[in-house]
UniProtKB/TrEMBL annotation, chain A:
Domain 2Fe-2S ferredoxin-type: start-end pairs: 4-80
Assigned keywords, A-Z: 2Fe-2S, Iron, Iron-sulfur, Metal-binding, Oxidoreductase
PANTHER family (alphabetical): OXIDOREDUCTASE WITH IRON-SULFUR SUBUNIT
Keyword Repeat: no
SUPFAM superfamilies cross-referenced by the UniProt entry: 2Fe-2S ferredoxin-like, CO dehydrogenase ISP C-domain like
Organism: Mesorhizobium australafricanum
Protein name per the record: (2Fe-2S)-binding protein
Amino acid sequence: MAGVAVSTTINGDAVEYLCQPDETLLEVLRDRLGLTGAKEGCGTGDCGACSVIVDGRLVCSCLVLGAEAEGRKVETIEGMAHGDQLHPLQQKFLEHAALQCGICTPGFLIAAKDLLAKNPSPTEEEIRFGLAGNLCRCTGYDKIVRAVQDAAEVMKGA
Amino acid sequence: MNFDPRFSGRQFASVGTRPIRPDGVDKVTGRARYGADFNMAGQLVGRILRSPHAHAVIKSIDTSKAEKLAGVKAVITAKDLPDLTDGDAAMYDILDNCMARKKALYDGHAVAAVAAIDARIARQALKLIEVEYEVLPHVTDVDEAAHHHAPLINDQVFTEGLEEKPAKPSNVTKRTQFGHGDVHAGFAKADFIVERSFKTEQTHQGYIEPHACVASVNPDGTADLWVCTQGHFVYRQHCAQLLGMEASKLRVTSSEIGGGFGGKTHVWAEPVALALSRKAGRPVKLVMTRDEVFRASGPTSATSIDVKIGASKDGTITAAEATLRYSCGPYAGSWAEIGAMTAFACYKLENVKTVGYEVLVNRPKTAAYRAPSAPMAAFAVESAVDELAHELGMDAVDFRIKNAAQEGTRASYGPVYGPIGIGPTLEAVKHHPHMKAPLKANQGRGMACGFWFNFGGQTCTDLNIGMDGSVSLAVGTVDVGGSRASLSLVAAEELGIDYSHVKAIVADTSSLGYNDMTDGSRGTFSSSMATISAARNAIKILRERAAQTWDIPVEDVHWEKGHAIAKGEKYGNLSPLSLKEIAAASGKTGGPIAGHSELVADGAGVSFATHICDVEVDPETGSTRVIRYTVVQDAGKAVHPTYVEGQYQGGAAQGIGWALNEEYIYGKDGRLQNAGFLDYRIPVCSDLPMIDTQILEIPNPNHPYGVRGVGETSIVPPLAAIANAVSNAVGVRMTHIPMSPPRILAALDAEREG
């Protein structure tokens, strides 16, 4: 099977790769590019652990083909901090203990970043529905919601 | 010096604070490495072929076409995992579950496996394996399976625990009984009796990370296994035994674990990955799909429980009885036994009897799920207790307080309790503002209690003090939810240094002595005990080094707040030596300073919780929303209170999912119909309210700081608390979990039709 040549931008860097036509963006990120921050929890778009942002849109990377990244801008968890400066969401997730096992955390952070980009002052209900595409089995979501609320306050003040 | 684990009251400096966890930054930046995030040079992709039949004889397996496919490096069947279990029935069941030997016993049972150069070729190869099955009648329902006409899953099983060995084989593997007193006499004294039958459906732990491992067997017979597990030492034992290796030749490294909740306490794919690697001569990565996780890992039991409780007019329970049938999957288990032990553990009872029946069904092998077996028993008992309170005209909380177990009560499962928290959690609930908040139309409030044993077990810990005075803590209990933070706090507390100078890691099986797995809520309980012991051993050396430096007797050197202090007026001019100063000089005073600890952490304090829940039920659709939830639980001592709260909230959320929605749905063909997160729907963020918590601290007398396990008890009360809330909201007693919309509508219809 011939590979597809793809030129794309990932976390601000120009990246080129060959992938199979049926290979998902998640497989490309994890297995070809070594970006294992996005996780496969289901492979069917139900858990959100593989969330990335493509051209400003929150997607499950298991439902996007690697070939579809051609010419686009992809944001992953690996690009969320600036050097050693954590994003306010990352910092607040730590302070609120909004993670236990942490497998869902990259997906939640990406989804929360997308949510706050579109709605900087979400209500609790808007946060809960905004993050409803991401499954967490450890926390009961309480501390995740509080971390996002706190991060939103910090980001508004920045 | 022998370690004294007894509780002694003290003022804490570090324990009870809420610092950021040491593994946190890795987890918010995507750098933490979980089971599937590790790779080795030359690694192959492993895939498993699974039975589509619930029950079938495997007549033949032809792997020749798969073996010829370009890129396939190994194909294995049960023949490549010969039986080395030497009469160990439990290990034989594990072997048979890893790879079916004669019969496929459930939809999803592994029958063959391949290793290929990529996933695509591996998938193609599976399609080329030809398995000839003789399909047999199957049974998936726990009550049907217990019936004497049911298809037999294993004709070598004769029910154990009966007075006489039965003449015929059965799907009931074991009967167990607990209790004391005379329940017949007790019921004769009762003024009110409630008798009901309950059912709960099978649920899955639902960890977000599928099982994943990388196995590498070398030509010299040594091997490495990278794996997400709750117990890498146990995995090493099991894999080594099944593969015929010496345990010391197999080094198992536990990856970060993406949730387990009991589901990662058993090997499934790991022996298969090792066998593939051995045959192919290359490392093999094997990652389950979500479909495989549902079909072929270890969900919890489905249950059928009969409860009878009687009370006199003054509200004293005179007798309590339960019969519990728990599904085990196709292999023997002790799930009903645990349910029978926990069922009435919250109460002080003169006459109590519980009987458990372990039932084989054509479903995946049951595994532990957070306080395994207790939530279902609590659902049945706490529902009946609520109903009985109602019949007596007593408040549900007051009725429980009147009958609650206390220090000195003989538990229904045998032992006599020490100081326990059931009474205090009930008193806290009675006075909680949640209990007085007004309710609207179609809303109901419920409460329920829960018990869990907790476990201690074998534990080994190393504490090494660096020359700069910083501390490396190596533990052997896998960190499932923040224990590296709590154990660093404990090390800092005992040594008298700042938390920031301690770094805890989970050591691999070649770097530390044996540890039992992280189960039974033992992670922080047992490893903190071992950490305290290791730290005290290190302090002994620190004192010796200070004594040597000062040239005074070691008995005159005390350890206070991270410093060696010379005690006595004659030493008035000696300045205290800090841990850092003693460490810096260690090269000249006798070499590295370390403390080790090997112990069996006995005395895990039992744990109790009481939950309050408000629900709103839509009478037209039967849909239920939890609108307020409060957890009150005894932690003994909360080492890192934020993570204790997290355990309370997480268990409650899992219980809410179990109570309202989650269930394995099997078709008449014996196949699982909802093996994915779309159709097996766990609670999402928009389904839940904030989950309020109240931590009580009734010290465990068998731990230096009073710590009890906190991880599991929180899932025990929710099924009952929510069932009581729904029953109060709709006016109909709900007896079947999950209370999904169709079941609630059916119950309402049945009530209307009378």
